[in-house]
Design goal:
By secondary structure, the protein is α+β, with helices and mostly antiparallel strands. The protein contains eleven helices and twelve strands.
């Protein structure tokens, strides 16, 4: 029961990570999971239920057909956490997302941000992104050496191949950067990729929701199949180094073994590599919780 679970979890989380609890409470009505040992891994299988009349997050995926999980070739092998979404109807998803935002008290601040963005720039950010985005996107956290993992957060958004993404992003950049005072606007070429910067703060959470809340900055790189966002130029350079040397999740042997036990299609897919997550776990949970086995 997510309403009760979020209350129980509140005492276990650090203060800086507790902001997502109101959203977790309306993820669904309930979930039931079985744990099955398989070789050197444990598989969790089960069901989640969301009432059709409720404003739960899971209802965003209603009437969406599962998609092939394709973005792993654009995600570094050092990924500690991946929150992936695949959609058969992008327009329907964003329509249902607006209903979710408008009907959920937990998202009142998001409504204000969207309204302020439109007033300031005269454009709808989600509408602009939909012009070039494909049917899947992911929020990624790579392995971090410290509890401050902001420079390890990325958004990977598939392009649809129908539009000139560079041209559309340049237009969006002109419309928004001209109204935000920020000197860091120059493009930078690194290993064949152009790093650019949208200076409007919290753009990714505005378009894609609280799952992307750690991406307050919008430095980005455009590839043949995706647009990747990070919090800094140095962050994107780490991503570029991984992709340029083919050190991707899709080529990682351990991930391949994991993926062999999973469906190749989904609408919502979450991957967590615990061995790459000690600092991430320490930043999320209170120290007393992490000492439970001592």
């Amino acid at each position: 029961n997510y309403a009760n679970f979020s209350q129980t979890l509140s005492g276990a989380l650090t203060k800086k990570e507790a902001d997502f609890l109101p959203v977790l409470s309306v993820f669904a009505n309930w979930s039931s999971l079985d744990i099955k040992p398989k070789g050197n891994a444990y598989l969790l299988t089960g069901f989640s239920y969301s009432n059709d009349s409720s404003s739960n997050y899971l209802n965003l995926y209603k009437n969406q057909e599962a998609q092939d999980i394709e973005l792993t070739e654009h995600i570094p092998a050092s990924a500690a956490y991946v929150h992936w979404t695949g959609l058969s109807d992008v327009n329907l998803f964003f329509k249902q997302y607006e209903n979710y935002i408008n009907n959920s008290p937990a998202n009142f601040s998001r409504q204000q941000v969207a309204s302020n963005f439109y007033k300031k720039f005269g454009i709808n950010a989600a509408t602009c992104f939909k012009q070039w985005m494909g049917n899947q996107f992911a929020y990624v956290i790579t392995e971090s050496n410290s509890e401050n993992y902001l420079q390890n957060c990325y958004a990977v958004i598939q392009t649809n191949g129908k539009k000139n993404v560079t041209e559309l992003m340049n237009d969006f950049k002109k419309q928004t950067n001209s109204k935000v005072s920020n000197s860091d606007t120059l493009n930078e070429l690194f290993r064949g990729y152009t790093i650019s910067h949208l200076t409007s703060a919290n753009l990714l959470p505005l378009v894609f929701g609280d799952a992307f809340a750690k991406l307050s900055e919008s430095y980005y790189v455009i590839t043949e199949a995706a647009v990747v966002f990070g919090n800094s130029r140095s962050s994107l350079k780490k991503w570029i180094n991984a992709i340029a040397t083919n050190h991707t999740l899709g080529e990682d042997d351990k991930y391949k073994k994991f993926a062999d036990n999973m469906s190749s299609q989904a609408t919502l897919y979450v991957y967590s590599a615990l061995a790459r997550s000690p600092q991430l776990i320490s930043s999320i949970f209170n120290p007393d919780v992490l000492k439970w086995d001592e």
